[in-house]
Design a protein that fits this description.
Layout: H1 2-12, H2 18-36, H3 42-47, H4 58-84, H5 89-107, H6 113-127, H7 130-145, H8 149-178, H9 180-201, H10 222-252, H11 259-284, H12 287-307, H13 311-337, H14 344-372, H15 376-398
Helix pairs in contact: 2-7, 2-8, 2-9, 4-6, 4-14, 5-6, 5-7, 5-9, 7-8, 7-14, 8-9, 8-11, 8-13, 10-11, 10-13, 10-14, 10-15, 11-13, 12-13, 12-15, 13-14
Length: about 400
């Protein structure tokens, strides 16, 4: 009887973060999967000429990307402010996931580029707030449960990455079997499942009147904006690489077309242990110094990619890419949130917006590079971004008002 009870306890509390923490991890996996079903395939959906895609112009996709980034950033900021004013981040998350489900249902049944624009600006922009809001709920839970924030955030980030791997893999499989509508319906289903989990299992926090704010800090230190600049530039580098490497491999080096997919799978697999281990290292070492190390790994990676010419070289270099992304993403959310601990909604939203803005700037950079240079020039641009990130963190640590945490 004792064995059975102990076994049931292990099933119920499969991590040290508590029952609600486990449900939050699952919600993060689902959230990552929801967006991974659609984000990696949207360029394919817009530009596909052979299947059931839109057969649109490249400029149409660029306009779409810039539009949803702009309006998504506005929506994220507004909802982050609502959370800091005392509104429930859980219910904002549920609303955003519902908008995401509506968007993908409409995508599955729309053939007009202009209608896609409208759906994206309205529903995708509102749906994008789901990511910062689930991060806000998670941070609120970590503070309430008095668990290690660095470790919990790193595991959350790893669970989101795992969801991304799952969603993107199923997405392309569904496209191959059923067309783009299959991927969009898949995203809708996962969104609904995430809403069910949120309704019945996620904690719900409301700020008391004395702890509520006006939704935005009266004073944001210069160090915070410098840190956000570093976060954006780091994401620009990653976006430049991800968008350019398939073209470098297939068009410029004439290597196998299957190689980019293998590289993405390798780094997605390897970055998760780096995320988890970075939290343990953060107990002993300065987190900013660890992020600096991640940028050094990025420097080595992009320098190696620029000179690589063979498949095995690209594969080996993914170890450095995984170290860069794993540490940078695993600790990044914690150091951003700790800059303004009373405004978790604001800081979580700013962190998520840095991902969106960086990715979009990287996409714009690829269009410029493709027009005037070779795509390998994008790797040099990513290398320059790493140097800027290192300089930015050094300046941040040198500031007399900046705590080394």
């Amino acid at each position: 009887m004792w064995v059975n009870k102990n076994f049931m306890q292990r099933l119920q509390f499969f991590s040290k973060f508590g029952r609600a923490g486990n449900w939050l991890l699952l919600a993060n996996v689902m959230t990552g999967s929801t967006f991974a079903f659609i984000i990696p395939v949207m360029s394919y959906f817009f530009l596909d000429q052979k299947g059931d895609g839109l057969n649109a112009r490249p400029i149409d996709f660029l306009i779409y990307l810039v539009a949803i980034t702009f309006f998504g950033t506005l929506c994220n900021q507004f909802m982050g402010r609502m959370a800091d004013k005392g509104h429930s981040s859980k219910w904002i998350y549920i609303f955003s996931m519902a908008c995401s489900a509506i968007a993908t249902l409409l995508y599955a049944n729309i053939e007009s580029v202009y209608l896609i624009f409208v759906v994206g600006i309205v529903f995708v922009s509102l749906g994008s707030a789901a990511v910062p809001q689930i991060l806000t709920v998670s941070r609120q839970y970590a503070d309430q449960a008095n668990i290690d924030v660095n470790q919990f955030n790193s595991v959350l980030r790893a669970s989101f990455a795992a969801g991304w791997v799952i969603g993107s893999s199923f997405s392309y499989e569904l496209i191959a079997r059923t067309g783009f509508s299959g991927a969009f319906y898949g995203s809708s289903i996962v969104s609904v499942l995430a809403i069910i989990v949120a309704l019945y299992a996620l904690p719900n926090y409301h700020k008391s009147k004395e702890h509520r704010t006006n939704g935005k800090p009266d004073f944001v230190p210069l160090g915070f904006w410098l840190l956000m600049g570093v976060m954006i530039i780091g994401n620009v580098a990653n976006s430049l690489y991800m968008l350019s490497i398939p073209l470098i491999i297939t068009n410029e080096l004439l290597l196998p077309e299957s190689l980019p997919g293998k590289l993405f799978a390798i780094v997605a697999f390897l970055e998760i242990p780096f995320m988890l281990y970075s939290a343990k290292l953060a107990i002993r070492f300065n987190r900013y110094h660890l992020v600096m190390v991640s940028f050094l790994m990025g420097l080595i990676f992009y320098l190696g990619i620029y000179f690589a010419t063979q498949s095995w070289q690209f594969m080996v270099l993914q170890i450095f890419n995984a170290a860069f992304i794993g540490i940078y993403a695993g600790l990044g959310i914690s150091i951003v949130q700790d800059q303004l601990p009373k405004f978790v909604g604001f800081t979580s939203t700013m962190y998520t917006n840095s991902l969106r803005i960086g990715s979009t700037l990287g996409a714009v950079g690829i269009f410029v590079v493709g027009e005037f240079f070779t795509y390998q020039a994008a790797v040099l641009a990513a290398l320059a971004c790493m140097l800027l990130c290192l300089i930015g963190l050094i300046l941040l640590q040198a500031s007399p008002t900046q705590k080394s945490v």
